Amino acid sequence: MDLFEDPQPQQGNQPEYTVSELSGAVKRMIEGEFGLVRVRGEIGRVSRPSSGHMYFDLKDDRSVIAAVSWKGQVARMQVRPEEGMEVVATGRMTTFPGQSKYQLIVEDVAPAGAGALMAMLEKRRAALQAEGLFDPARKKPVPYLPGVIGVVTSPSGAVIRDILHRLRDRFPRHVLIWPVAVQGEKCAAEVAAAILGFNAIEPGGPVPRPDLLIVARGGGSLEDLWGFNEEIVVRAAAASRIPLISAVGHETDTTLIDFAADRRAPTPTAAAEMAVPVRLDLLAAVDGFGARLSRAMAQGAERRRVRLSDLGRALPRLDMLLGGPGQRFDAAVQRLGGALGLMVTRKRGAYEARAGRLRPEALRALIAGRAERLQVLTARADTGMERRQERSHAGLDKWASRLAPALARLLSGAKTQIARDRDRLGVLASRLETAPAQRLARATERLDGLERMRKTLGYQATLARGYAVVRAGGAVITSAELAREAAALEIEFRDGRVTTGPGTSVAPSAEGPLRTPRKPRPREEGPDQGSLF
Fold it and tell me: Where in the numbering of this chain does the OB-fold nucleic acid binding domain appear (predicted)?
C-alpha cells in the first residue's frame, strides 16, 4: 500500500488523511494480515463488567496484548480465563480506534497443557475449601433405604443403564432422571440447575421429592470432566438439602464435586450400591432376626419356668399351711353347738321374767292410773288459764287508763308544732324572695364606692387639682438635678402635654413624649409613680 511506503522525492504534494481514514486503513491492514490466530501467553488483569463481556491481557516476559471476549463468546467457553493461567487463546486481531490500540478478539481459551489445568484446579480447590464448602461437619448422612432417588446424568449414555440395572438387582426404587450434558460448555450450568431443581421440589406435590441424589458420569480426560470442577456446580452440591452422592469418572478421577458431595462413589455402579441395600440380604437378615426372636422367647420362657419351679420348692407344703387353721376351725365348730344351746336357754329365762311382769291386768291398771292423772292435770290447766286471762285483762285496763290522757296531750302538741313550723316557713319564704335584690343593691353600692376611690387615688385626679408630671426622653423626672441635665422636658397637665427646651416652642402635644438628643438616666418608676408638683 502506498500509504505506508516512503514518499518519493519527486512527489512534492502528499495527500492529506483524516484521523478516521488513517485508523480505518490500519484496521483493515491488521485484520487482513492476521485473520484467525492462536496466541499462547499468561492471563493478567481480568475484568468482568455487568455487560457480560470479559476484558483481559495476554502477556509474556516482554510484551502485552489486550484481549476481549464478547458476552456470547464467554458463555461458550469451556474454560473461563483466570488471572495467572497459561492459555492458548484463539481469535482475531483488530484495532480499537477510540483508544488507538490493537487488541485480540478471543473466541476460545484452552489451557496450555495439563499442568496449567491442574494448577488452576488446585487453586480453585484451595479457595473453596477456605470457604468451608468441603467441611466434613456439613455433610449429611445418606438414608438407609430411600423411597425416591434422583439421578443427574445424560439419558443416552451407559451410566444411567448401569445405575438402573444395579438398583433393580439390589432393591428396586422409584428413580427420577434429570437429563443434562455431562461435558462441554453447557455441562456446569445444567448440572447446577438440576441439583437446585431437585431441591426445589416441594414434599407431597405431584412430583415426588427425592430422598437421595446421584450425580453420575463415566470416565474421561481432565478436559472432559472439567464441567464438574466449575464453581457453580460445587456450590450447588454444597448447598443441596438432599443428601448427594458424587459418581463422576472412574476411581482414579477426582473432581471438585467429589469434595462437596456427602459421599463419593468410585463409579456410577458403586453409587447405586451405596444408595440401596440388597433386598435378599435384608430378607435373610429379617428371617434370621425372626428365628433369633423365637429362640430367645422360648429360652426366656424356659428360664422363667425353671425359676418358678425353684421358688416353688422353697415354699412350705399346702397341708402344712392349712393343718393348724383347720384344726382350730374344727374345735370352734364343736364348741359352737353347746354355746348356742346355752345362749338359747339364757335368753328364754330372761324373756319369761319380763313376760310375767307384762300381764294384761297390770297393763290395764297402769293405763287407768295414767288416765286419772291426765284428768287431774287437765282440770288444773283450765283453772290456771282462766286466772291468767283475768290478770291480763286487769293489767290491760290499767295501762289503757294511763295512756288515754298522754295520747291526747301528744296529739295536741303535734298540732301546735305544725302550726309554728308553717308560720316559720312563710317567714323564710318571704326572706328568700327579698334576699337576692338586697344583695345586688349592696354589691352595686360597694362597686360605686370602689370606682370613686379609684378616680380619687389616680394621678389624673391629682393633675386636675393643679399638679403636673415631668418627663425627659420617656423617663419620669423626680429631682431638680435630673431636670437641669435634661436637654428638653415634657410636662403633662390635666388637659395635655407641652415640651420645653432649646429650639422648642411651648405647645400642647397630643402625641406621646418627644425624643431628645440626650437621655437622662433611666428610672424604674411608671407613669403612675411620677413626681407631682
Answer: 17-109
User: How confident is the model over 473-489, as a mean pLDDT?
Assistant: 83
Residue with cell 389624673: 460
113 pLDDT band, cuts 50/70/90, is low
Evaluate whether 261 touches 237 at the Cβ level (below 8 Å).
Answer: yes
* Contact indicator for 244, 198 with CB cutoff of 8 Å: no
Cα distance between residue 482 and residue 470, in whole Å = 10
Query: To the nearest whole number, what is the mean pLDDT of the chain?
Result: 81
Using alpha carbons, list the distances in angstroms from residue 9 to 5, 15, 65, 196: 12, 14, 37, 74
Over range 494-502, report the average pLDDT. 80
Number of H helices, E strands in the chain: 13, 15
Q: Which amino acid is at 344?
A: V
Phi/psi at 8 (5° precision): -75, 140
Nearest to 216, CA basis, from 231, 195, 235: 195
Q: Give the Cα separation of 417 and 396 in Å (integer).
A: 31
C-alpha cell at 424: 316559720
Query: Per residue in 141-168, pLDDT tens?
Result: 999 999 999 999 999 888 999 999 999 9
What grid cell was written down for 399? Answer: 295501762
Q: What domains lie within the chain, and their CATH numbers?
A: 19-112 (2.40.50.140), 117-277 (3.40.50.261)
Reference 183, options 151, 158, 213, 153; nearest CA is 153
Under a CB-based contact definition with an 8 Å cutoff, are residues 65 and 130 in contact? no
Strand partners for 44:
57
User: Cα separations (Å) of 523 from 93, 350, 390, 486, 501?
Assistant: 100, 136, 110, 14, 21
Residue 530 to residue 458: CA distance in whole angstroms: 12
> Which of 16-20, 213-217, 357-361 is the most confident on average?
213-217
Per-residue model confidence as pLDDT tens digits over 359-404: 677 777 778 888 888 888 888 888 888 888 888 888 887 777 777 6
The H-or-E segment that residue 265 falls in is none
The structure's pTM equals 0.43
Residue 522 phi/psi, 5-degree rounding, is: -65, 145
What's the CA gap between 71 and 368, in Å, rounded?
142
How does DSSP assign 161-185, residue by residue? HHHHHHHHHH---EEEEEE--SSST
Within 10 Å of residue 238's Cβ, how many Cβ atoms? 22
Helix, strand, or coil (residue 262): coil
Q: Which residues pair with 469 in a beta bridge?
A: 492
At residue 118's C-alpha, the angle toward residues 114 and 121, to 5°, is 140
Which residues pair with residue 215 across a beta bridge?
A: 152, 246
What residues contact residue 183 under an 8 Å CB cut-off, 6+ apart? 217, 220, 224, 225, 226, 227
